[in-house]
Amino acid sequence: MAGLLAGRLALVTGGGSGIGRAVCQALAKEGAAVAAADINRQQAEETIQLLNKDVQTKAYEVDVSSSASVNTLLGNVKQDFSVAPCIAVNAAGITRDKFLLKMDEKSFDDVINVNLKGTYLVNQAFGRAVAEAKLELASIVNISSIVGKTGNIGQANYAASKSGVIGLTKTAAMELAKFNIRVNCVLPGFIQTPMTETVPEKVMGVVVMLTPLMRMGKPEEIADACVFLASEKSSFITGVALEVTGGLNM
Ligand code: NAI
């Protein structure tokens, strides 16, 4: 199968919905084998049904906030595909929006545990697997958010988790370069997915007005950036926080 990523194996977390699902589709279209992992196994299975049939694909259940679950995932993927993945895209994420003065500890912890700790755990387990397999080319793409740069009312927990992902990405880029692993993150603006369906229409209207390209983004547009960062088209790029926002908060 020809394509930018032919012969490569990609692990995608949050692969059961929205951006993660679009990433799975774009990677498979470019010839990568895909392991789609999500806390919702049923949705991950549904993603697999949508993928290019010429490449090997498999759905997995994982809770990225648990090291045991992440380590089991990496072990199962290696076993099923007979090789360690050389691409990881970390798209698993949640929101629990509340104003800071009303933020309960659980809402804060849950968001940090999935968005930041989960990204750390997968970066670590993937990094170990690549180092052990002595792969020559590997790439991690972490999905942060533009609000990790700017903050956002009602999202102290989420913005903090996404700022954390930027710091984690840059540090991992420094530490993992010696194992031939590039590490970058994407900062999406407001993208049409189930995550943003609950944002009130009025708020979305304001966001669109503040976006120079005057619209929300599509999951496919984030997926295209992930394909670029996963591929050798970005071979000299590491530690970058790539904004894919239609110009919002540039
Ligand atoms: P989504 O809600 O459609 O998809 C998120 C997926 O993550 C779901 O399938 C969910 O089951 C999975 N997930 C949740 N907790 C998990 C866990 N503990 N372990 C494994 N999987 C888990 O959301 P969307 O919009 O596709 O978001 C994907 C990523 O992009 C997230 O990290 C989100 O924070 C980020 N993002 C989204 C933006 C948007 O406007 N939609 C903007 C900026 C960033």
What features would you describe in this structure?
One of its GO terms (molecular function) is quinone binding. It is found in: Mitochondrion matrix. Belongs to the short-chain dehydrogenases/reductases (SDR) family. Its EC number is 1.1.1.239, 1.1.1.n12. Pathway: Lipid metabolism; fatty acid biosynthesis; Steroid biosynthesis; estrogen biosynthesis. By secondary structure, the protein is of the alpha/beta class. The chain has one domain (9-244): 3-Layer(aba) Sandwich (Rossmann fold). The protein is 45% helix and 15% strand. It contains eight helices and seven strands. It has helices spanning 18-29, 41-49, 67-81, 105-133, 147-150, 156-176, 201-210, 219-230, and strands spanning 9-13, 33-38, 57-61, 87-90, 138-143, 181-188, 241-244. Strands 3-2-1-4-5-6-7 form a seven-stranded parallel β-sheet, with helices on both faces. Strand 1, helix 1 (18-29) and strand 2 (33-38) form a beta-alpha-beta unit. The longest helix has 29 residues, at 105-133. The chain is globular and about 50 Å long. The mean pLDDT is 97. 1,4-dihydronicotinamide adenine dinucleotide binds next to helix 1 and helix 4.
